[in-house]
Design a protein that fits this description.
Blueprint (H helix, E strand, L loop, with lengths): L1 E8 L4 E2 L9 E3 L4 E4 L3 E2 L10 E6 L2 E9 L6 E6 L5 E6 L3 E7 L7 E8 L5 E6 L6 E3 L9 H4 E3 L15 E7 L3 E7 L5 E7 L9 E6 L5 E6 L7 E11 L2 E12 L2 H4 L9 E9 L2 E11 L2 E13 L4 H4 L7 E13 L9 E8 L4 E7 L3 E6 L5 E6 L4 E4 L5 H4 L9 E6 L5 E6 L4 E5 L10 H18 L4 H4 L7 H13 L3 H6 L1 H12 L6 H22 L13 H11 L5 H6 L10 H6 L1 H16 L18 H20 L16 H16 L10 H13 L24 E5 L24 E3 L4 E4 L6 E4 L5 E3 L7 H8 L11 E4 L5
Parallel strand pairs: 1-34
Antiparallel strand pairs: 1-33, 2-5, 3-4, 4-6, 6-7, 8-9, 9-10, 10-11, 12-15, 13-14, 15-16, 16-17, 18-19, 19-20, 20-21, 22-23, 23-24, 24-25, 26-27, 27-28, 28-29, 29-30, 31-32, 32-33, 35-36, 37-38, 37-39
Helix pairs in contact: 5-7, 7-9, 9-10, 10-15, 11-15, 14-15, 14-16, 15-16
Length: 817
């Protein structure tokens, strides 16, 4: 383990220094982190413990501090399965649901709330939506994604008519009450509360898990290690438009340390209670602590049938069940100095090679333990930023005499468990890499296989792959790209179509990690835009008659263009039913900026064909991409037909001759280039005649500058070295030698025209419009739409939630001069 970056507060608020104030941290599948602090502002002594801070991992300085309105300390934070909504709960029983304002990660608002007045919340979870994807590590060498990742039969916690999962959340209070809030389709809340059992008692700790049958399991303890850990089954239903909660008491367990006479009174308090995962209710971890140390026990629970006497078998068809302890292991850690041995945080992770857990110790270290054996796999020292593998010098010898003052109060693993975020008692946020080998030395090929497996997993599930990129060194990028493409091409056509844009986005992210492949990142971003424009333009086509044949007009266009190898665009048009291309004038005119981009891009590619030996130039990847060249060819045919109906929608070229038919010339050269590369298994080099004609293009047409490609100002390209970055909240990271007071530009050249990458518009040198940028690729677009036509608004609505690459949006300030 090693630190990637540390982010601290710019004004350095002072700490409350109250160990009783818990800190919570949550990491979403979209790589958003929400956390709390126990700090006060030095200027006005304002308590910041009621604030919720949200960041995206690639721009940690751009923190959005939400004034939550909670009156007590926030005890729980929980992201939903989509990673776009956040639940928060406090010590007064208030539960709030937060959503993005205008789908911006740095702007949040409360959309729903519920409360159990005066009853503190100790556990909180969203209801399960029934989606579960199993990762089969033993089949990681398979070429079929369906064998590596399979859909598991898992029932939602509650379903609507037709089997659609109903959204909502469930919470457990300190008085032993379980409360459920359901989000009805009309936006209203349906709330109900019920006692966990008939005899309500104090619940100090609780956790929630789900079963495959749609039930909910709650584990609860009163905080005393001498008391049993209770388990309850909770079923949620809707009867006559009212929420109904049914609870059932399950078998309980006593911690083994309390049944041992030697250790009966050594660990009096249960400080942590966690299920292995939300979807695994059969394995639970318990931690009991004292001022002298802590003990962690791993329990596996199952139901077994008890043999009964024959006299009872005919009376009841039901089997008697009991709770059976399969495995119970302990891990004891004691302090170097009294009072510094308590485990302040316990969290679980599921990783590629192992299932394990992380313990944050009060001496400032983090210990990684194997889930089954509880053997130590690694130790991280927060004060020094160093880590220790198994077999190295013990941690107790490496501590300072007085003991470090820094320790972690909240920990959270990423969804692939390759990164760990921790919030310390000074309010600093630490981003820590966790090796997929968990301390074992792996050769390069094995490490590449692990990273490739996790990238494929992210592609299939839709999870963000930022934490996987933390471990991809520049020297690995080329091999990862090649192997990822090979695995993708082995999948069936249906799956390839589903993952077609997602794999391009993954490749673009990988290429940015190495200077040798930076130009290919530009090509992949251009391909994303090309695919989007092509599907949008084809969607405008309508069949001429109502009895639609099997193929849509767009499919017939692709089929005819693939078969017809004529270099004359007008002859290709003859074979098409032009009545399917008849559109009104306003939609065509409003899409002119997208049509102009297509025309400029074709001219740019052909003009750069003579320089194909230079792999560093943007556009090189398209010269042998038969599918993309064919897509460009189809769009030129569509644009040519639309130009006959509305000449104003045609792309504008600056030609040296008045009688130059630019579209005819570009289509002819593009077809020749496409013929060389349409057979990807046997590509051919362009002949000398084509290269000579392309050399003459700059003298016939003015070649546009395609310096519109987005550039990302995130930290992922800067944390590849072993030296951790030191960042400040609210202060953008600047490269060495750059004035730290200047705003980091998300545009390529500060003195050039700024571009709206989605609308393909020039914004001027100093745009005054509010803009938003993609957290993943850096694509910039205006926050407010300047268009009023339906065709362009439909284009903009496609990207209202996510960027072309699937990344989230964040608001960026307007650049004023």
């Amino acid at each position: 383990m090693e630190i990637a970056y540390v982010c601290e507060w710019e004004k350095r608020p002072k700490s409350n220094h109250c160990p009783s104030i818990p800190l919570v941290c949550a990491w979403s599948c979209r790589n958003l982190i929400a956390f709390t602090t126990d700090l006060k502002n030095e200027e006005d002594d304002k308590d910041l413990s009621h604030m919720i801070h949200v960041i995206d991992t690639d721009h940690p300085w751009d923190v959005n501090s939400i004034n939550s309105g909670h009156t007590e300390v926030i005890s729980c934070l929980e992201w939903d399965q989509s990673g776009s909504r956040l639940l928060s709960a406090d010590g007064d029983g208030q539960i709030k649901c937060w959503g993005m304002t205008e789908h911006l990660v740095n702007s949040w608002e409360c959309t729903q709330s519920s409360s159990v007045d005066g009853d503190p919340i100790v556990a909180l979870s969203w209801l399960h939506n029934g989606v579960k994807l199993a990762l089969h590590v033993e089949k990681s060498g398979s070429t079929n994604f369906g064998e590596k990742f399979s859909r598991v039969k898992f029932s939602p916690s509650l379903t609507l008519f037709g089997g659609k999962p109903m959204e909502g959340w469930l919470a457990v209070t300190v008085s032993g009450l379980v409360t459920v809030s359901l989000l009805k389709p009309n936006g209203t809340l349906l709330t109900a509360s019920e006692s966990l059992c008939r005899l309500r008692g104090r619940v100090a700790l609780a956790d929630i898990a789900f079963t495959g049958g749609g039930n909910i399991v709650v584990a609860a303890t009163d905080g005393s290690s001498s008391s049993p850990v209770q388990f309850y089954k909770v079923c949620v239903s809707v009867v006559n438009e009212k929420c109904r909660i049914d609870t059932e008491l399950l078998p309980s367990l006593f911690m083994r340390c309390t049944t041992d006479p030697v250790r009966r009174d050594k660990y009096p308090a249960v400080t942590h209670l966690k299920f292995l995962t939300r979807e695994n209710s059969e394995q639970v971890l318990l931690c009991a602590s004292s001022q002298m140390g802590s003990i962690v026990e791993c329990w596996s629970l199952r139901k077994e049938g008890l043999p009964v006497n024959n006299i009872f078998q005919h009376r009841s068809p039901l089997k008697l069940l009991k709770s059976s302890e399969v495995k119970r292991l302990s891990f004891v850690f004691s302090p170097s100095t009294p009072g510094l041995g308590t485990a302040t945080c316990l969290w679980l992770m599921i990783i590629l090679l192992f299932s394990g857990l992380a313990l944050a110790i009060h001496d400032g270290s983090i210990q990684l333990l194997h889930r089954l054996s509880l053997h130590t796999m690694g130790v991280f020292y927060g004060s020094s930023g160093s880590s220790q593998r198994v077999g190295e010098e013990p941690a107790i010898k490496r501590q300072r005499a007085g003991g470090p003052t820094l320790h972690f109060k909240a920990l959270q693993f990423s969804w692939t468990s390759l990164a760990l975020v921790g919030v310390d008692n000074h309010g600093k946020l630490h981003m820590i890499r966790v090796s997929p080998s968990m301390g074992q030395l792996l050769d390069m090929n094995t490490l590449l296989r692990h990273l490739l497996f996790l990238l494929e997993y992210c592609m299939v599930t839709g999870y963000d792959w930022w934490d996987v990129l933390l471990h991809a060194q520049p020297s690995m990028v080329h091999n990862l790209l090649e192997k990822l493409h090979e695995e993708y091409m082995r999948q069936n056509q249906a799956l390839q179509q589903v993952l077609s844009t997602r794999i391009v986005a993954v490749k673009a992210s990988l290429c940015k990690l190495s200077s040798a492949t930076a130009a290919r990142a530009c090509d992949f971003h251009a391909k994303l835009l090309l695919i989007a424009i092509s599907s949008t333009l084809k969607s405008l086509l309508r069949p001429h008659v109502l009895n639609t044949p099997d193929k849509s007009p767009g499919d017939r266009l692709s089929e005819i263009c693939a078969k017809n190898t004529d270099t004359d665009i007008d002859k290709v048009m003859i074979n098409l039913k032009t009545e399917e291309f008849v559109l009104d004038g306003p939609p065509l005119q409003s899409l002119q900026q997208l049509i102009q981009w297509v025309g400029d891009f074709v001219l740019y590619l052909l003009a750069n064909l003579p320089n194909q030996g230079s792999i560093v130039r943007p556009g090189f990847g398209f010269l042998r991409d038969g599918a993309s060249l064919g897509m460009l060819r189809e769009m030129l045919v569509m644009i040519r037909i639309w130009g006959l109906l509305k000449p104003g929608c045609l792309p504008i070229y600056t030609a040296t001759s008045d009688n130059q038919d630019s579209m005819f010339l570009l289509f002819r050269l593009l077809t020749k280039l496409w013929l060389c590369s349409r057979d990807e298994s046997h590509p051919q080099d362009p002949d000398e005649t084509l290269i000579d004609e392309c050399c003459l293009l700059p003298s016939q047409l003015l070649v546009p500058s395609m310096d519109w490609l987005p550039i990302n100002d995130g930290v992922i390209t800067k944390v590849q070295s072993k030296h951790p970055l030191r960042l400040q909240f609210g202060k953008p990271y600047t490269l060495p030698g750059v004035n730290p007071n200047t705003q980091v530009e998300v545009f390529r050249i500060p003195a050039s025209q700024r571009m709206d990458h989605l609308r393909c518009l020039h914004l001027g040198i100093s745009p005054t419009e509010d803009s938003k940028a993609c957290t993943r690729c850096g694509c910039v677009t205006m926050l407010r739409s300047p268009n009023k036509t339906n065709a362009m608004r439909q284009w903009e609505q496609r990207w209202i939630k996510n960027c072309l690459c699937g990344g989230l949006w964040r608001r960026i300030p307007s650049t004023l001069t």
